[in-house]
Amino acid sequence: MRELGRILGRELPALLLLGGLAAAPFIGFGEGYMLTLLARMMILAMAAVSLSFIVAGAGLVSLGHAATLGFGAYAVVILDDLQVVDALFVLPAAILAAAGFALVTGAVAIRTSGVNFIMITLAFGQMAFFTASSLSGYGGDDGYTLYARTEVNGARLLDDRLVFHFVCLGALVLTWLLCRMLLASRFGRVLRAVRGNPMRAQALGFSPYPYRLTAYVIAGALGGAAGFLFANATEFVAPAYISWQRSGELLFMVILGGLSGLHGALLGAIGFVLLEEWLSHQWEHWRIAFGVLLILAVLFLPGGLSGIPAQLGRMLRRG
Amino acid sequence: MSLTLLLVQGLNGLQLGILLFLIAAGLTLVFGVMDFINLAHGVQYMVGAYLAAYFAAQTGSFWAALALALPAALVVGLVLEFLVFRHLYDRDHMAQVLATFGVILILNDGVKLLFGSAPLQVPMPAALTGGVPIMDGLLYPHYRIAIIAGGLATAALLWWLVERTKVGMLIRAGATNAPMVAALGIDIRRLFMVVFGFGAMLAGFAGVMAAPILSVEPGMGDNLLILAFVVIVIGGIGSVRGAFLAALLVGLVETLGRSMMPDLMRLVLDPSAARQVGAALASMLIYIAMAAILAFRPAGLFPVRAA
């Protein structure tokens, strides 16, 4: 029981955020526009958590994570075109497609490290982007509008906004739980050891490569699931969703939130989407203010948004 | 494909390669010497182009615009260094990426605020509006040849600066082992500032030269930035020689690939599919090349830093 209390205490920020998302439709954020925004927020948070899992957990800073969302989203599109519209087939296909992409590209990319890893994942992301642009059967650059949202076992379940809200939330919670459990497991400890000092980990008898590749593929599969939801949320898929700027944004959510735990990615994604939404209604050239805030956050919040309490504590103690 | 067309495309590729080199040279030095990832380097190219457009509109002369835009680009670079970048040298790569992305957002929307989002035109200098006849009825513009010549001259100057002067020696030493240079009593911060300002000016120079043949618009630097990163990774981070060769390689592969790939694909596919697949493959070629080079030579073609 005390063990449970300790875990709850440590995960309090994440639980509060997820609880807030669950309560949101019932405390005044239930109309259509807000639910659309919340769905976008949760799907991006799902992608950000999976990215944070490999960035913070394994030191694999990928600048091509949006491509895994793209594989998931385009799996929905291609199956929609073939009139396969049941989630029982579409969701596994989306996950497998993204995991397959992560497996093939990761097998090459994980041979490099540091900046070169960033660049090679960028390169693979760009390849996916240009492939998507060339799919003229699915709209090419202009994108593809889905006929309808994916069915679940023949029922049009996802069409209900509130149901979709909780499907997204459920997927986000599952993603968070899975990454959380993996990081706490022996597997996660090996990943951290490899990130900290690959040589020492090797000396202890762990070969870094299979561990890192497995983590990369898991993150890719989760990205594919997020892509499946993204396609259903917007009912429209375009190559612009997988441009390098998108991958950059995901990485910024992770860093902005802070790398000290997975709740950082949750906080980063929520903060990013809210700030973007709010600022874009204030001023036509809101990106200027957004850029200034980003720079200030980097200069004055080295631990990210999730590091603010600890930073405040330090300042108070110093007087 | 005719030989003439190949020649024209080859020259265009060379010209793109030269522009890429001017951007990549600053990027690779900043990256190599300071271990600093500057995503905002692409917008410095855009700033150069906008400065050229502004001064050309004010003075009515391309040459006056060139003469005014270069020092102005230098000033912009130094101001950015002073306000933002110098506070990030000791931080990790991720903080640098995040903050310099902020600079991209500010400058991309800043020029929209100042000049509007419609593309601007910069007139070509009157002396260079003609062309060299390559075949009957086909002229290759003097201006594009001037870009190639100007870029090659800048490359030669840069080679002399880096290989034959004391500052160049310090830069090379800094790229190999910056802490050691600092330990030998060199003010490494001032060296950083010089490299930074110079890199910003080179990128601005590329922007000025590109302004008359491309449309000057917000975000014009973003895609070139990614190409420039490809160049410096292929060439080996910190190596100006590597950046030069890789820039020409990327410029040629990109340009020739775009014109030849659809034709090559037609040998195996039907025409409409060939056009689609060819275009996609052409866009991917340089990324495929980069992935292949990184997979087999993880430090690039001309590695600088001691392993």
TrEMBL record, chain A:
The chain crosses the membrane at residues 12-30, 42-67, 87-110, 117-138, 162-183, 209-230, 250-275, 287-308. The keyword Protease does not apply. It is found in: Cell membrane. It comes from the Bacteria. It is a multi-pass membrane protein. The keyword Iron-sulfur does not apply. It holds the Pfam family BPD_transp_2. Its main location: membrane. Keywords: Cell membrane, Membrane, Transmembrane, Transmembrane helix. This is Branched-chain amino acid ABC transporter permease. It comes from Falsiroseomonas frigidaquae.
From TrEMBL, chain B:
Its main location: membrane. It is a multi-pass membrane protein. It is found in: Cell membrane. The keyword Cytoplasm does not apply. Keywords: Amino-acid transport, Cell membrane, Membrane, Transmembrane, Transmembrane helix, Transport. The chain crosses the membrane at residues 12-32, 39-57, 63-85, 97-115, 143-162, 191-214, 226-256, 277-296. Pfam families: BPD_transp_2. Belongs to the binding-protein-dependent transport system permease family. LivHM subfamily. This is Branched-chain amino acid ABC transporter permease. It comes from Falsiroseomonas frigidaquae.
